[in-house]
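Study the following:
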Amino acid sequence: MRDIPTSPRALEIKRNRRVRKMRWFVVYLLLIGSLIWGLSLLSKDRHIVISNIIVNGTHVINQDDVKNEINKILSGKYVYLFPKANSFIYPHKKIYNNLLLSFPRIESLKVDRGNLQTINVDIKERTGSFLYCGVNIPENKNDIGENCYFVNNDGFIFDKAPYFSGNVYFKYYMALPDGVVNPLGNQMTTEEEFHKIARFVDGVESLGFKPIYLFRDVDKTDYLYLDNGTNSTGPKVMFKNDDDLEEVFDNLSIAMAKKEFADEINSKYNTLLYIDLRFPNKVLYKFQ
């Protein structure tokens, strides 16, 4: 095979073509980079960044908790450039799914953009999920569910309930305030306290437990009984009802986040007697 000589002119033309292509490639890169950078700067304009969250329809669920959950999702940026709080690209689906997971009391949910700086969150809470069943837990488990009353999301006892077998509704057992004898038409406790207890129960449920009823003793201790899937009395979570229930729940949540603790509780759950949260920064527990 013979080498075909190439003229210097042809070599120069090829070299110039490569140089032009390289120059255009650099120009394109600069243009694209400038465009992305410009869009990044534009996306941070305060007029199109979400700074206001409006939550409607909550009773038991704390509005501040909902807002904090959304703000956590909106913090940060996409690919280090575009803020997630930009109203045109905010993570709507993630907000929707996370709220449903974080707040099991939500029955239906709507999340939409009110304007370029506002998110509207419309929540419908589950209703009719509470019963007030007197002061003491019946000794015979078959009698649990007798003589109960429906309780709304604010702790108001509004109607006599028919007999329900099993754990269709979460039940409360406690003395009514001010010596009230007839439950019907009275508050089970103050709205604020009822909401705190209900949020605590929801939080315990979010950790994988199944709360079924709560008993309040005369010494200000609450016993939250858990379903163990059998006919025997299940384990209970003990706490002081005059403590800060958010801190009490945080202690339990932190403990359950530790693999060793969670594995032991889950593996021996059928023999768990109690989890005691009555002492600051401590989680005590006992098995049979």
